[in-house]
Design the sequence.
């Protein structure tokens, strides 16, 4: 089981590197979308906590 997990992780890393090398602009767009999602989620949690304090 542990060996299968290692193999899957290595395959994922190789796939990500291949994608970045062959299409850097698309990869940058996907990273930007991911960070925007994380940012808006953090802002939503912050707004929720602020409303709880009020």
Sequence:
């Amino acid at each position: 089981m542990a060996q299968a997990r290692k193999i899957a992780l290595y395959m994922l890393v190789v796939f990500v590197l291949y994608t970045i090398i062959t299409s850097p602009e698309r990869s940058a767009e996907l990273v930007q979308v991911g960070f925007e999602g994380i940012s808006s989620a953090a802002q939503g949690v912050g707004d929720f906590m602020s409303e709880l304090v009020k």
Helices lie at 2-22, 24-53.
